[in-house]
Amino acid sequence: MEKLRIVFMGTPEFAVGILDTIIKNNYEVVGVITAADKPAGRGQKIKYSAVKEYALERHLRLLQPTNLKDESFLAELKSLNANLNVVVAFRMLPEVVWKMPKLGTFNLHASLLPNYRGAAPINWAIINGETTTGVTTFFIDDKIDTGAMILSKKIGISENDNAGELHDKLMVLGSEAVVDTLSLIEKGNVSTTIQRDNPDIKTAYKLNRENCKIDWTKPAVEIHNQIRGLSPYPAAWCLFKDNGEEWNVKIYDSRLILENHSHTIGCIIATKKEIKIAVKDGFIQVLSLQFPGKKKMLSNELLNGISFSERAQAE
Fold first, then answer.
1. Which residues of the chain have pLDDT under 50?
2. Domain chopping of the chain, boundaries
3. Neighbour-count burial of 208, counting CB atoms closer than 10 A to its CB (0-12 exposed, 13-18 middle, 19+ buried)
4. DSSP state, 193?
5. Quick one: DSSP state of residue 12?
6. CATH for 5-187?
7. DSSP 66-99
8. What residues form DSSP beta bridges with 253?
9. Considering all CA atoms of the chain, what is the largest pairwise distance in Å, rounded to the nearest integer?
10. What tens digit of pLDDT does each residue of 98-117 get?
11. φ, ψ for residue 51, nearest 5 deg
12. Would you call the peptide bond into 114 cis, given omega within 30 degrees of 0 as the criterion?
C-alpha cells in the first residue's frame, strides 16, 4: 500500500467540499493549486477563489500559476514530490502537469460520464429534464472529460431541485466518490472503464447570455426546467415590456401550471399577489425574480411597488 502525497487542483465552492473531505479523511495534501486572484464586482476588488480561502485557513501550500507551462511553476510543482493529482472544477491541464505524478491525475466530474462532458453539467442535467445524474472519477487524458473512468455514483433529481440544491447534493456525493477513489488507488485496486462515444451523448455546453434567455414559445415544462437549471446562478432571463418601458428581468423560481387558455404567448397576467406568463400549454407562475437595479424578491413583494397593464408582455 503506497502512502498518497496529493496535489489538489480546484477553484469554486464545489471543489472546497471535496478538498475538505480529503483532509478530514487524513490524506496528505502537499499542495493546492487554484486560479489566480482577479478583480470582481462593481468596486473591482481583488477576489480570492473559494479554494484559496480554504487553503489559507488551513495553512496549506498554495500555488496560483497564470501559465501552467511556466518553467518556474513546473519546478515548484515537481518539488512538492506528489505521487497523485486530484482535480475538481479547475481547468484543462497540459500533459506535462497531468503526467507528472507517478500514480497519475484523476478528475471528479459532476455527471454520469460520458454524458454531460463540459463546463456546466449540473445545470444542463436539470435544463434537459433528467431525473437522475451523478458524479464520475476518471484519469485525465489530453481531451476534456474523456479519460478512463474509475467509478461513478448516481443520485436522483427531484422535480423541484434547482441547480444550487443539486450542486450541494453532488458535492456530498462527489466527496464520497473521491475518497473511495483514493482508497482504490492507495491499495492498488483500480480498474478503469474506457468511455465509449455514441451519437446520443449529451453535452454540458458553457452557459452564456444566449442559452440563458427564456423562449416563451417553448412548452411550459421546458421553460420551468430552464429556470430551475439556472437558479440561483447565472439565472434565466427575459425582457418584460409594458407601456413603452422595457426591463431585463432575471427569474429564479417558478411553478408549472398546465391548462388550456386563450391568452397570447408571453402575455403577463399580474394580480396584486402573483405574476403568471402565458405559454402554449399553460402558464409559468413567477415566484421570485429580479428587476434591474433591485435585489432578488418574491413576486408579491415586487407587486407592492409596480403594476402591469393588460398589454404587458414577456419576450
1. none
2. 5-187, 220-314
3. exposed
4. B
5. S
6. 3.40.50.170
7. S-TT-HHHHHHHHHT--SEEEEES--PPPHHHHT
8. 288
9. 72
10. 999 999 999 999 999 999 99
11. -65, -40
12. yes
